[in-house]
Backbone:
């Protein structure tokens, strides 16, 4: 692996891991489309491929960028987990969210250990990867179409709902409801409002907004959280984005787009970090011989790319922006890559 190859792959890994466009899909397609030494050096499906160990090892840098960007949130969530163990209860929003992340990560962890090799051997080739990438685009576009239909339906029913709200109510307060993790909560309690401190910094506002979203996520129920986390298994297929499939599954289960995106980011950090750590022994062993300098350079670029990506995406989705541009991109690259590869070959 040359330094130019390592630098390009490192940057692509960092950027595309967090965008809903599949980092593995890009890392399979780009070398194949370039051809020559790139296709030979950077083959994921090759037996004992150092390239696979390299790109998975880059996950450590990507995960560190995620943790650094959300360090205040992770500190709060970890404290919630520790306090839950100490107090032997799951009562606060942070405690519930911590356990949701842990339990929602288990299915993909087990599937990765059992299926990663088989999926890599059979699917990490240009043709199936291009097809899966196009399917990823259709998935994102379908989610946006469903969300748009749901929004139009809610708008159509708004006048009737408003009329009911304006009528005097004699109903008794709702009884306390049990959440998916067993906490008694009053369903009539309104969610906290976002802070309106004009003097506060943009980052402080973003942190406060994250706390509000985490409060909503913690109330969605354990079953839904595990179901959404299990969807990450599909991302073992090259071309299917981990963040994309989690976001889409969350949206189909009723989460607002921004909440689903944030949950995908929170789930990504432990999964990506674990995958990278498991590959570190390969990079320090025979497979890493001769490419350790390239690993360092690629990891640095992966870290920078991931940090800038998460910064951009957090602001992008905070403005209620659509997944559609990413869907059209995946559809175009998938179909275009498939046609180009088949014709060129």
Residues:
């Amino acid at each position: 692996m040359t330094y130019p190859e390592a630098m390009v792959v490192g940057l692509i890994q960092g950027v595309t891991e967090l965008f809903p466009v599949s980092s593995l899909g890009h890392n399979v397609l780009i070398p194949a489309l370039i051809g020559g030494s790139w296709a030979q050096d950077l083959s994921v499906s090759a037996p004992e491929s150092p390239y696979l160990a390299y790109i998975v090892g880059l996950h450590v840098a990507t995960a560190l960028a995620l943790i650094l960007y959300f360090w205040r949130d992770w500190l709060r969530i970890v404290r919630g987990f520790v306090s839950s163990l100490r107090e032997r209860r799951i009562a606060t929003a942070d405690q519930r969210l911590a356990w949701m992340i842990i339990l929602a990560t288990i299915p993909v962890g087990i599937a990765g250990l059992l299926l990663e090799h088989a999926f890599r051997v059979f699917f990490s080739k240009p043709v199936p990867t291009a097809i899966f990438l196009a399917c990823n685009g259709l998935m994102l576009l379908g989610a946006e179409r469903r969300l748009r239909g749901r929004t139009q339906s809610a708008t159509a029913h708004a006048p009737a709902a408003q009329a009911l709200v304006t009528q005097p109510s004699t109903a008794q307060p709702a009884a306390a409801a049990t959440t998916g993790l067993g906490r008694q909560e009053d369903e009539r309690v309104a969610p906290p409002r976002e802070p309106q401190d004009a003097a506060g910094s943009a980052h402080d506002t973003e942190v406060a907004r994250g706390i509000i979203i985490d409060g909503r996520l913690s109330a969605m129920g354990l079953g839904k959280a595990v179901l959404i986390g299990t969807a990450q298994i599909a991302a073992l297929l090259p071309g299917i984005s981990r963040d994309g499939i989690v976001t889409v599954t969350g949206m189909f289960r009723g989460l607002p787009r921004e909440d689903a995106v944030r949950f995908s980011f929170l789930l990504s950090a432990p999964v990506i970090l674990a995958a990278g750590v498991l590959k570190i022994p390969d990079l320090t062993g025979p497979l890493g011989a001769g490419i350790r300098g390239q690993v360092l350079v690629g990891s640095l670029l992966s870290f920078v790319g991931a940090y800038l990506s998460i910064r951009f995406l957090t602001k992008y989705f905070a403005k209620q922006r659509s997944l559609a541009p990413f869907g059209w991109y995946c559809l175009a690259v998938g179909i275009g890559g498939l046609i180009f590869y088949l014709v060129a070959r």
Remarks:
- The radius of gyration is 22 Å.
- The chain has 15 helices and two strands.
